[in-house]
């Protein structure tokens, strides 16, 4: 460690010397950043890292994370050849299936591993046993094998990355505790340690389970809770000359194994999880001296896992236990990392690795270092972005309930459409009671209760998708879809994130941030994207000009922190001091009335002239409904004539009931979010985090129409103009409406894999299953036949002209 005195300034300060901090330091050095300091309050690796089990598995449920873990393996191989090798051993790994559902999961994973050139293979139970002879095959129906997975010594790994960082110019100071952090104009300015103050431009909080307490120094909430996580190591009993066993995961039994010297290391995820220092009232204060320490053995909670392990590996009941490890590890509410820049400029976080931080460290360090240098993520990291968490996570009770639920379901199969059960009901629309009384089945998004569908619309299961897509399916969705296309649907979208942007520079600011020209005059509404400097889509929303210097922005329920945080960042960095961004999500209810009869129905609820001439498409007006002044905006996300109606929350219920009453006799049906999804897929409307994200640009996504040709400058314009277009988003259809892609399935043309599905669903009007995929330009001609792999078997679909429904927009502009 550095013997020099602590510098008084550095460009970048990393807090934490576990695998997270050392990897960020290593990758910053690789990117040429030399003015970097890493601080740890104790020794390197003295947090969670030193007691890790060290398994490195690459395949995860998310393509980005899988790519990151593949980078980890590349890096660990590379480090193994240096003077400070981390004991990387490429022993391979086996995953067992003991249920048909698990086998389906394995086959699905094999499918999308193919799209990364990751050599995941299906093997028979017998082959699995040949690779891991200590195993009993009771109940095993199949397995997968990945030869390039492995194991590593976690402490040596951190030391190897620290050595690489130091060689690249990073200075490391141990026994240097960060006591406070200073900010100026919402940006970091300095850190105060017990050895002195360091002025800096960027801080990366790599504090693992300590990250929340570090973030509290700048009033940032990092929703991580230290959870007790346990494993044991047996006495040595194996032949020292035998080849190293592969790691073995048996998720249906909640257990994993790897060879440790000549014994076995065995751990798992208990069904009765236990937070260490946090409780339902308090955050997660960790004792000031908790380093290089473990928790007490908790055999009671480990019993189920121990029993399961003896069933799978009978030898476990014969051999002694050499050591039992109970170590705390930082878990997040969705088992994904917390990465990226927070609402405080220059304050980054890379923590909450949920017991896969050793597998993830290489990739985490790479993407976070790139993010720090570029000022924005260089790949789609939405699932790991700290900005995915809304305000509810400021509550210790909410956070802990969510984390416990996730920990206990760690090894479960997660089917699409699955809903969280903990900490519910959450936030409610003013019409919630009406929905509940009318058989609504609620889902949850960003802690909002939202109607998925109404159970009383259910009929028969003749359209039920095969396999996973059918698990949480309801026939009510088809009924609600059809009612919207034929008559009208009324959707409660009160959870939409809403903000008012105002001030003398508001117009100039928004036209700098947005790709479309959003300043078209009071009463006009514009659909736009906000791009990053690479031309990728950071946000996707509508902007309504409500005054000369006032704009109303509507974005998706889950994107409030992300999208409005992006606006705040651009405001800060662009010096737009005369701009105010006020989040008003909970001030307004939003009801969308959509369908051919929308005008007829709305006319019964208001005396405003709704004719096309007086109230054209993409215009917004204040009108009266049930004696309440509401904002009605004429637009659609389902491909029908319609209005979104924004009412003050206090009058929301009254307005909802007035709309329902106006629809009596017109075939109006209250509808849920699942119907919106089906309707918008059919019409080809894009969803951020679905078909579009920070890695896709508007041209390849088919959104050039929403990019201003006139504006001289906006963020991302140059990158977009210079981008070489190599791929395009295409719509695929399948004649069998029950053959529904879920996303990530490989797409094959003429026998070669050319892409993977981004999103999919059912189109109840066109009577086909739908998928969207980015494919190389040369393969995007409509009419081209494609093969898509569903759980190990290939089904044929076709690339279609877009949009699949109402290509003339005749339903909308009338
Ligand atoms: C029992 C167990 C088994 C595991 N098994 C596996 C496995 O098999 N595979 C896998 O991939 N992952 C596994 N993990 C997870 C993995 O160990 C962790 O994800 C990883 O080590 C976390 O690293 P980190 O750098 O984020 O945090 P840490 O290693 O905890 O590092 C954080 C550092 O921050 C320092 N710090 C805190 N506050 C301050 C301050 N104010 N000033 C300065 N420094 C500060 C601490 O001293 C600490 O050194 C396991 C975890 C546990 C507990």
Mind explaining what this structure looks like?
- With about 800 residues, the chain is of the alpha+beta class.
- The chain is built from 17 helices and 38 strands.
- An 8-stranded mixed β-sheet has the order 5-6-4-14-15-16-13-17.
- A hairpin with a 2-residue loop joins β9 (about 180-185) and β10.
- α1 runs parallel beside α5 (about 155-165).
- The longest helix has 18 residues, at about 65-80.
- The chain is globular.
- The relative contact order is 0.10.
- The mean pLDDT is about 95.
- The chain binds flavin-adenine dinucleotide (FAD).
- Flavin-adenine dinucleotide binds near residues 42, 55, 291 and 327.
Uncertain segments: none
Quaternary assembly: single chain
- Strand percent estimate: 25-35%
Bound molecules: flavin-adenine dinucleotide
Question: How many whole angstroms does the radius of gyration measure?
Answer: 27 Å
Helix content: 10-25%
Largest sheet: 8 strands, mixed
Tell me how many strands there are: 38
**Class from helix and strand fractions:** alpha+beta
Strand arrangement, major sheet: 5-6-4-14-15-16-13-17
Task: Output mean pLDDT.
Answer: 96
Count up the helices. Answer: 17
């Amino acid at each position: 460690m550095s013997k020099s005195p602590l510098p008084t300034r550095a460009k970048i300060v990393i807090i934490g010397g576990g695998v997270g901090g050392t990897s960020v330091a290593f990758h910053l050095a690789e990117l040429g950043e030399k003015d970097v300091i890493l601080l740890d309050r104790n020794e390197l690796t003295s947090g969670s890292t030193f007691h890790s089990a060290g398994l490195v598995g690459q395949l995860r449920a998310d393509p980005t994370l899988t790519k990151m873990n593949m980078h980890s393996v590349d890096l660990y191989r590379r480090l193994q050849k240096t003077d400070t090798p981390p004991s990387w051993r490429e022993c391979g790994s086996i995953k067992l299936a003991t249920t048909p559902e698990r086998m389906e999961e394995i086959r699905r994973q094999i499918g999308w591993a193919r799209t990364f050139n990751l050599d995941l293979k299906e093997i028979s139970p017998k082959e699995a046993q040949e690779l891991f002879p200590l195993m009993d095959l009771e109940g095993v129906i199949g397995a997968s094998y990945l030869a390039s997975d492995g194991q590593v010594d976690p402490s040596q790994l951190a030391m190897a990355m620290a050595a690489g960082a130091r060689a690249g110019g990073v200075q490391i100071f141990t026994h240097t505790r960060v006591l406070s952090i200073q900010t100026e104009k919402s940006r970091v300015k300095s850190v105060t340690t017990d050895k002195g103050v360091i002025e800096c431009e960027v801080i990366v909080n790599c504090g693992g389970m300590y990250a929340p307490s570090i973030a509290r120094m700048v009033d940032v909430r990092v929703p991580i809770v230290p959870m007790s996580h346990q494993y044991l190591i047996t006495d040595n009993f194996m032949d020292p000359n035998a080849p190293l066993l592969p790691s073995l995961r048996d998720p249906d039994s909640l257990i994993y194994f790897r060879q440790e010297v000549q014994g076995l290391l065995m751990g798992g995820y208990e069904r009765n999880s236990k937070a260490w220092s946090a409780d339902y009232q308090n955050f997660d204060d960790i004792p000031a001296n908790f380093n290089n320490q473990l928790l007490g053995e908790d055999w009671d909670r480990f019993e189920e896992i121990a029993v399961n392990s003896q069933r799978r590996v009978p030898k476990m009941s014969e051999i002694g236990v050499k050591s039992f490890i109970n170590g705390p590890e930082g878990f997040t509410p969705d088992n994904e990392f917390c990465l990226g820049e927070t609402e405080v400029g220059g304050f980054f976080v890379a923590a909450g690795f949920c017991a896969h931080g050793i597998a993830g460290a290489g990739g985490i360090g790479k993407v976070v270092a790139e993010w720090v240098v570029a000022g924005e993520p260089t790949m789609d990291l939405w699932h790991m972005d700290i900005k995915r968490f809304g305000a509810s996570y400021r509550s210790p009770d909410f956070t802990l309930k969510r984390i416990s639920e996730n920990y206990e379901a760690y090894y479960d199969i997660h089917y699409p459409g699955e809903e969280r059960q903990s900490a519910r009901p959450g936030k409610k629309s003013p019409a919630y009671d009406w929905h509940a009384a009318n058989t609504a089945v609620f889902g949850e998004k960003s802690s909002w209760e939202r109607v998925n569908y109404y159970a009383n619309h259910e009929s028969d299961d003749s359209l039920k998708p095969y396999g996973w897509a059918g698990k949480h399916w309801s026939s009510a969705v088809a009924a609600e879809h059809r009612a919207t296309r034929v008559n009208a649907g009324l959707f409660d979208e009160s959870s939409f994130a809403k903000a008012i942007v105002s001030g003398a520079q508001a117009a100039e600011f928004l036209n700098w941030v947005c790709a479309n020209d959003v300043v078209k005059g009071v009463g006009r509404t514009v659909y736009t994207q906000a791009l990053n400097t690479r031309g990728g889509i950071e946000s996707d929303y509508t902007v309504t000009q409500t005054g000369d210097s006032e704009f109303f922005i509507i974005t998706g329920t889950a994107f409030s922190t992300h999208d409005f945080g992006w606006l705040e960042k651009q405001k800060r960095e662009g010096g737009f001091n005369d701009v105010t961004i006020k989040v008003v999500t909970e001030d307004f209810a939003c009801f969308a009335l959509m369908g051919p009869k929308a005008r007829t129905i709305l006319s019964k609820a208001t005396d405003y002239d709704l004719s096309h001439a007086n109230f054209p498409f993409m215009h917004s007006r204040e009108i009266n409904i049930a004696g309440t002044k509401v904002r009605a905006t004429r637009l659609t996300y389902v491909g029908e004539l319609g209005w979104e109606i924004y009412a003050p929350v206090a009058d929301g219920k009254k307005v909802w009931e007035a709309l329902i009453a106006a629809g009596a006799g017109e075939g109006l049906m209250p509808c849920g979010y699942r119907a919106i999804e089906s309707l918008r897929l059919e019409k080809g409307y894009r969803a951020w985090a679905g078909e579009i994200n920070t890695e896709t640009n508007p041209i390849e996504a088919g959104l050039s129409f929403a990019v201003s040709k006139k504006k001289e400058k906006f963020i991302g314009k140059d990158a977009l103009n210079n981008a070489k277009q190599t791929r395009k988003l295409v719509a695929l259809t399948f004649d069998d409406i029950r053959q529904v892609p879920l996303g990530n399935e490989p797409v094959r043309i003429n026998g070669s894999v050319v892409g993977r599905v981004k999103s999919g669903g059912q189109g109840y009007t066109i009577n086909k299953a739908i998928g969207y995929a980015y494919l190389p330009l040369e393969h995007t001609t409509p009419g081209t036949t494609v093969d898509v792999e569903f759980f190990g078997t290939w089904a044929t679909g076709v690339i279609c002209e877009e949009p699949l429904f109402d290509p003339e927009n005749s339903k909308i502009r009338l």
